[in-house]
Fold these 2 entries.
Entry 1:
Amino acid sequence: MLKVTLPDGSIKEVDNGYKVSEIAKDISEGLFRNSIAAIINGELKDLDTPITKDSTVKIITLKDPESPVIYRHTMAHIMAQAVMRIYGKDNVKFAIGPVIENGFYYDFDLGDTKLSEEDFKNIEEEMKKIIKENIKIEKSELTKEEALKLFKDQPYKVDLINDIEDDHVSVYTQGDFYDLCRGPHLPSTGMVKQFKLLSVSGAYWRGNENNKMLQRIYATAFDKKDKLDDYINMLEEARKRDHRKLGPQLGLFLIDTDVAPGMPFFLPRGTEVLNELKKFSREIHKKYRYNEVESPQIMNVSLWHQSGHWDHYQENMYFTEKEDVEMAVKPMNCPGHIIMFKSNVVSYRDLPIRMFEFGKVHRFERSGVLHGLFRVRVFTQDDAHIFCTKDQVETEILSIMSLINELYSTFGFKYEAFLSTMPEDHMGDVKTWDIATGALKRALEDSETPYTVNEGDGAFYGPKIDFIVTDSLGRKWQCATIQLDFQMPERFDINYVDNNNELLRPVMLHRAVFGSIERFFGILIENFAGAFPTWMMPEQVSVIAVSEKYNESASLFAQKLEKEGLKVSLNITNSTVGYKIREEQMKKVPYMIVFGEKESESDIITVRTRNGNTAENILLKDFIDTVKKEIAERTIELSY
RNA sequence: GCCGAUGUAGCUCAACGGUAGAGCGACUCAUUCGUAAUGAGUAGGUUGGGGGUUCAAAUCCCUUCAUCGGCUCCA
């Protein structure tokens, strides 16, 4: 008899070979009906897995958090089966069909047949049929030899089987379809019904561009209709907030793809927002004792030879030449900062030196990857390089993390940290890496920042911490980064004089907080759907004249607000009050004041917010003070 | 770069081999309005660029530029 420990701690004795599904049935008929898989000794397994040793077992139902991985995987098979039925078994070569965040995909090689979204209806219909047929899904174990024979007409599967180290592989069969798969899967095809095909695209076999391009269908599935609806609504909401649409619509920026692909034009309103972001950033960097600098936009290629960019980054650089001198447009700011560091003898008393620059960098990106403000060919980094002694590293990192926290919390962003350690291909000795990585780790721990370690994911020149922010739709963005660099100080042979009059190599820290200001701006547009906190808005208060009779007094009123330092938009167009409110509302101006007879006679106003609230009988002075405070404190929510 | 889709007025879209249309926006006029759209009129286009097929091309073909979804998630 074998001992099976259940989640409630109870122990059940079963015979060798007793199936998990039978255990479920023993517990209750209801559990059995709802069960889809099990976690056996920490591993996700099928329901018909036999128990062969003492084990801990947890039965998984659709309610468990582990269930989407399972039913989406099964749904991927159902989709593959539908594609097979429609296009004919001999015309489809199956590649892989994994579960991904929020859904799954399957890659097919359909020869000359091109899939398009118009084919979705067909495939979805066939999938519904397969679900309705409620076909039993069965697992079988094969030797690799048997599997190779079974999949002899499926070259991608053969490729996969050859790569598997185990002697045995598993195959899941559902009616006329079988697939090489690790599992686990639902017991039958009818258990989960809510799915939707999302998009079709090309994808290289094994992600390698030298391999054949396959056709990939992205899709998702949920156990309940309302969950699927929620997800589709979220996609819809994200689509509505798309900064590429909102940006031009709100007059923030435009991208003229004929004139300069990947290089945004910032319109007056957008520039106003960028300037507020920069102003905020300057304030905070001043507080943390950084010194702002500016380095040239183009510099001699010899500098880039020395920095290593010529050898490692040339593909992404722009070049220009005059009087036989070849220059490169800077893709990074570090070499420029080093030139400034080297311009003087540096004493240990001068360290740490914190050089900060809104560095505008150009990087060539392949045309296929450009994406609004998120992936561009020119952008501004809030870049800084810190030159310090080894002993100062930890303190400096703590200070950077505190700065990051202060900046992100102003936008209401939550974030997580990732520590990347030494990669196989690295420079510098292991000991230096250990010290540096240790310093990063201690800083994370001392500041009680939760973090995940990405083993071997560091840059070849040093370990790093990346910060990922989560926006209001739950999407994640990598923004801030702190990198230790062992290479640049060597390459440029930079030194400082220590208290024994010896020349020592400083440590160089490379860090950015927004990352790219423009990209961060894009994230903010989507996060706030264009309705930024008041301090960032290009217009903070709209003054709307009730009719042309009040145009003049309304304009004087607006000037009064402007003198208080508020950004005011004056709307005295010849249209109804309702229409003018709508215009201001569409611009997402936080506060609107309708100016008419009442307002011209007293200092009592009615404040309307873009959220649709109206606050009546507000003393003008109180309104001004309140909004000024809201702006000064960079409050996220509106005051009324 | 590669695969697929797309490109028509400032914006959203229609016309799918036979004289390019609508709504919004812009402009003009009337209206003088109290918290999300007053009414009427006017202007606006070598249908992304180039080439071809045809009596005739926004529509079909070729080419080029750009945009969108992807090309990292490993049976």
Entry 2:
Amino acid sequence: MSQKPNTQVPEPASKDRLRLWLRLLKASRLVEAELRENLRQKFGATLPRFDVMAALSRYDEGLKMSALSGVLRVSNGNVTGIVDRLTEEGHVVRVAVPGDRRASKVCLTDQGRAEFARQAAAHETWVDEMLSSFDQDEAAVLATRLDHLVTTLTEGED
Amino acid sequence: MSQKPNTQVPEPASKDRLRLWLRLLKASRLVEAELRENLRQKFGATLPRFDVMAALSRYDEGLKMSALSGVLRVSNGNVTGIVDRLTEEGHVVRVAVPGDRRASKVCLTDQGRAEFARQAAAHETWVDEMLSSFDQDEAAVLATRLDHLVTTLTEGED
DNA sequence: CAAAAATATTTTAAGCCTAAAGTTTTTGAT
DNA sequence: ATCAAAAACTTTAGGCTTAAAATATTTTTG
């Protein structure tokens, strides 16, 4: 029988998961802050507007407002404001949907498409620099692992 | 000599790093959204207010406003508003700093400390559930890897 | 067909966030 | 001692974000 009581209790897994979450949050906030700042300085743009243009760039026919908020996982009212500003800038247009006067499709203009191409190229460079401490294999492995996490977090809601 | 031209060019590392960043961002946004929603529903609280209380809970003597915004990496004006709301709720107090009438230290009240303890326990449980697909070792390894990333991202600025 | 329900979107109120400007107080250099 | 610079903090203006309410239109149902 051991004479000394075991005062060295093992750390529960929840503590390691909490630490993982805090690091994940800190890392993504740091990268995001740098991207926001770069977009602001180099293009007078914002990350939400970039995100909307990125989503639209994958749909030549445009997206309805509700589809846009669904893809981006933000509220409808949020998208309204961002599309308003992109419209003022001439980067997108609202196009009436034939047969449904409630809805409109949002499409990139030619100007918006050209501007997004410039921003996306710079964006990829910035990310490549910030994550340069990951070699290609490590980046691929970790991306796949996070993809699994995203799947578990989102399954049973769509 | 090979007769066929090599049309299958390798993917550059920047694409894998971009994919990693997009997954990292999506995962952290999903977790964060769930935590925000839980804090709102279960405690009528918000993540920024939780973050401020978490920072204060590590400093019994309280923190000056500027130290608080430094720890949290947010702007001074931002902290002003959040501390105003926490003060209205009775969770924190501004205490005058002897010898410097410009500054004040923010301290958790007893009520704030008790409330934070409840929220922090729930928060750890929520994170543990959301990241349950990571076993303890994987969580520890990945947390350490992200810690290195955070270090490279922040070095040469503090 | 008319009323009710559902859908698409915008508006509103409140909070979060930043950069920049403003206020008050302290420090430092002359 | 004075006075300019620095420091601590708040205020402001503008944008992002949500939940909830409001508006307009379409679909369903009795």
